[in-house]
Write a structure and sequence with these properties.
The structure is a single chain. 45% of the residues lie in helices and 0% in strands. With 65 residues, it is mainly α. The protein starts with 9 loop residues before the first helix and ends in a 5-residue tail after the last helix.
């Protein structure tokens, strides 16, 4: 693995609410490589439903860390 934003890691998911993860996906994370995923200048203009689906998926996938 390379460097990433850690939003899929168990430690982050255990400590973070869905609301925090939602904002993180929408707006990105400062001081990381994660860019926003919602809005006209984002990497992808995801809908709120698509972001909720991603959060649900992250919560079901086993993580190594």
């Amino acid at each position: 693995g390379g460097t990433g934003t850690a939003i899929g890691k168990a430690g982050f998911l255990d400590k973070s609410s869905d609301g925090f993860i939602r904002v993180t996906i929408k707006e990105g994370r400062s001081n990381t490589r994660m860019l926003p995923f919602q809005g006209s200048e984002a990497m992808a203009d995801l809908s709120d439903q698509e972001i909720d689906d991603i959060i649900a998926y992250l919560r079901t996938v086993p993580s190594k860390n």
